[in-house]
């Protein structure tokens, strides 16, 4: 091993069940007993990570825990038949950073079944610029296309368009020739300029998004990718064209859905749930290969607005939950 100890962010609970967060030195004997050891280069900050690190959401399922739901790095040692030492890999999902130790560490021991070999042309830094958010966005685009949506179908709405998933979704859809409308949830001109720079044809923020939708509203969208949930998703459903399709992947605005059956039985709207946590390996490999083709690498630099160290993750998490961050946050664990 390169050294006897390495740094990791560790979450612990005190007697009052408050979350304690600190960067600590760990030894290799502290790591889980799994089949593959990875030297991590980068992780990211996702909404779920922010909830875990700040203790503001019921995310952590074991204590102590090294958080971080994704990472990219190089295999140091493995007994997994599909992997080899020196191979560059990426991990997203599988409840890592929740039930299993995750990416906010310079080394991690994980199950080889969870790792995807990095496609040619993608560095570990690029991979984490994409991260769980970008991987989820690609799955959403895949779901829409599998359901028959194409650039000729009409306008595709992306909610939470200035966030991690939304940013990548806007960029991919634009690259593929779709007309994209962006909902950022903000009247900040800088955010509007940001999503237009990613390829959005219009920004649709308005007061109506802060009010409850009627069961059916005017038809506006051929398809949508929703990262927000709650009242925003209810309005999206109410505004879908006849036969419209919505890929839902997030709950930044809440887990409830205050809607009715009207969009489904009177307009034939379809709501597709998109899960990135337990997606099978074949779907993961296909999505990462598509990302190397359909997401321009120069766009990643635009999407990645901030890079932080391990000891800066908590303050970035607080800023994310306060709605003060745009795009992706890269975590350089070294």
Automatic annotation (TrEMBL):
Organism: Paraburkholderia sejongensis
SMART domains assigned to the protein according to its UniProt record, in alphabetical order: PKS_ER (SM00829)
InterPro entries documented for this protein: Acrylyl-CoA_reductase_AcuI, ADH-like_C, ADH-like_N, ER, GroES-like_sf, NAD(P)-bd_dom_sf, Zn-ADH-like_protein
Record Pfam families: ADH_N, ADH_zinc_N
Domain Enoyl reductase (ER): 15-331
Name this polypeptide is given: Oxidoreductase
